[in-house]
Amino acid sequence: MARKLTLFFSFFLVAWFTQLQRFLVFGHGEPKVPCYFIFGDSLVDSGNNNDLNTSAKANYPPYGCDFPEGVSGQNLGFKNFTPPYNTATNEDLSTGVNYGSGSAGILEDTGCHLGDRVSLERQLKNHESVVTRLALQLQNTEEHLKKCVYIINIGNNDFINNYLMPNNYPSSHQYNLEQYADVLQKHYTQHLKTLHRLGGRKIAVFGLGMLGCAPAEIEKYGTNGKPCVEWINDAVSIFNNRLKPLVDELNVVLPDAKFTFINMSNILAPRGGEPLPNKPCCLVREDGQCIPNSIPCPNRSLSVYLDSFHPTEIANRVLAQRSYTSIYTEDASPYDIGRFARES
């Protein structure tokens, strides 16, 4: 039954997982999956940070300028739109919850200089609470949860708001990039096993995008004539290259589950033609977010980034489409999210 949800959007990037949700839920006929759970950072945060004491929220224009229902305070008429955890009611739980939190990371202290945030560990604790509440509503919670799709898009801040900020965090002094990737992988593995323990069986693990192409990093470090900061993209690759083997290992040690790796860097890599400029489409303040109520560039389809960190709607659409139905074998391994929806 269609219903209205009043939400404050923390970041406009909610658009990409909403596009993905349309593939899963809003196609013709019955939903392809009964429920959809979302974990991650600002790329998926749909309002969980709004009431937190943090600067990592953007519930103001121009964020939402390309989202059909706009930004703060809009009534969203999407059928079964996945609500943020902080506003989810008992009626919402069976169809899914969004736990994403801007500035959150795999590591607990990531993003702490920006204020409060809900780390991945805390997001999983929130999910455990939801599973407990669901057990009071459903006769067979385990059977229900194993049919759901779970996506996790996190790790960006473990670089942007941790390792790449040596004056705020000790990580770059303690570890080289290989060692840091190992630390992240170790923590991530435990978090993914926790999600499996809580009933997750169809789990899509998103890799990191090319963080060295973010306007904020280009402005900070320079590119030596290259399009992006290559050493940052190399650092991201070190971590991303551990995710596919991690997914393969989990599929062996947890054979009742289906894990898959979504290669965001490959999906968003320019292919042919002149690459779009890596410049923010809005006027940005010192922290890289859009200045409130500023006017963004008129043709955002020709821009990769809306602000200094986050992509525009055109990039979100490409990510949603190709994570659901991969075009290249490198996009998703061992299968795309669409296959989750088709298989029992």
Automatic annotation (TrEMBL):
Extent of the signal sequence: 1-22
Chief location: secreted
Keyword DNA-binding carried by entry: no
Highest taxon listed in the record's lineage: Eukaryota
Gene Ontology molecular-function annotations: hydrolase activity, acting on ester bonds
UniProtKB keywords: Hydrolase, Lipid degradation, Lipid metabolism, Secreted, Signal
Signal listed as a keyword: yes
Subcellular location: Secreted
BP term (GO), one: lipid catabolic process
Pfam family, one: Lipase_GDSL
GO cellular component, as recorded: extracellular region
Similarity annotation: Belongs to the 'GDSL' lipolytic enzyme family.
Protein name: SGNH hydrolase-type esterase domain-containing protein
Organism: Artemisia annua (Sweet wormwood)
